[in-house]
C-alpha cells in the first residue's frame, strides 16, 4: 500500500482522515476533487487518471502540465508555497506526523525539504520524486 500514501498524505493535509494506511474510495474522491480544481484553475486538460498516475509516479507525469498540476495540488494542501514552489518544511513535517511517527515525518521532511528546480512546477515535481524515492521511510 505504500504507493498509495502520497495521495493519502495530500488528503490528510485537509484534515479529512487521521490514517495514512488506507487509500479509500473517499480519499480517492478528495484527491480527484483537488486535481479537478487545479485543472480548472490552470485551464489545462489533465488525464482522467491523473490521481492514479500521481500515486504511482507514472513517468508520463514528467511534463509541464502535470508538474504544474502537482504544484497546484501541493500548494493547496500547504506542502509548497503557491508563489515559489518551495517546500514548507514545517507544514510538511506537521501534517505528515498526523498519520505517522513524528521521527519519520521529520526525517522525511529533512530529506525532501530542499526541492530544487528552475520553476515552481519543477520544484513541486522534485518533491514528488523525492517522496517516491524515500517513501520507504514510512514502512
Ligand atoms: C509555512 O506555512 C505556515 C502555515 O501556513 C506559515 O505560517 C509559515 O510562515 C510558512 N513558512 C514558510 C517558510 O513559508
Ligand atoms: C531520498 O531522496 C533523496 C533526494 O531525492 C535521494 O537523494 C535519496 O537517495 C533518497 N533516499 C533513499 C533512501 O531513497
Automatic annotation (TrEMBL):
Q: In which compartments does the protein localize?
A: Secreted
Q: SMART domains under this entry?
A: PhBP (SM00708)
Keyword annotations from UniProtKB, A to Z = Disulfide bond, Secreted, Signal
Do you know which Pfam families this protein is assigned to? PBP_GOBP (PF01395)
Q: Which Gene3D superfamilies match?
A: Pheromone/general odorant binding protein domain
Record's InterPro entries? PBP/GOBP, PBP_GOBP_sf
Mention one GO molecular function: odorant binding
Q: Cell membrane among the record's keywords?
A: no
Q: What's an example Gene Ontology biological process for this entry?
A: sensory perception of smell
One GO cellular component term, please give it: extracellular space
N-terminal signal peptide: 1-21
For this chain, the family text in UniProt reads: Belongs to the PBP/GOBP family.
What protein name is recorded for this chain?
Putative odorant binding protein
Native organism is: Anopheles aquasalis (Malaria mosquito)
Amino acid at each position: 500500500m505504500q504507493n498509495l500514501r502520497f495521495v493519502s498524505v495530500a488528503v490528510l493535509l485537509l484534515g479529512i482522515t487521521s490514517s495514512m494506511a488506507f487509500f479509500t474510495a473517499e480519499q480517492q474522491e478528495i484527491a480527484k476533487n483537488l486535481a479537478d480544481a487545479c485543472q480548472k484553475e490552470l485551464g489545462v486538460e489533465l488525464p482522467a487518471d491523473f490521481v492514479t498516475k500521481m500515486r504511482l509516479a507514472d513517468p508520463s507525469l514528467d511534463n509541464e502540465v502535470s508538474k504544474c498540476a502537482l504544484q497546484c495540488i501541493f500548494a493547496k494542501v500547504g506542502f509548497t508555497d503557491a508563489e515559489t514552489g518551495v517546500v514548507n518544511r514545517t507544514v510538511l513535517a506537521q501534517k505528515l506526523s498526523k498519520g505517522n511517527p513524528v521521527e519519520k515525518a521529520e526525517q522525511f521532511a529533512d530529506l525532501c525539504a530542499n526541492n530544487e528546480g528552475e520553476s515552481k512546477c519543477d520544484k513541486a515535481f522534485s518533491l514528488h520524486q523525492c517522496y517516491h524515492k524515500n517513501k520507504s521511510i514510512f514502512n
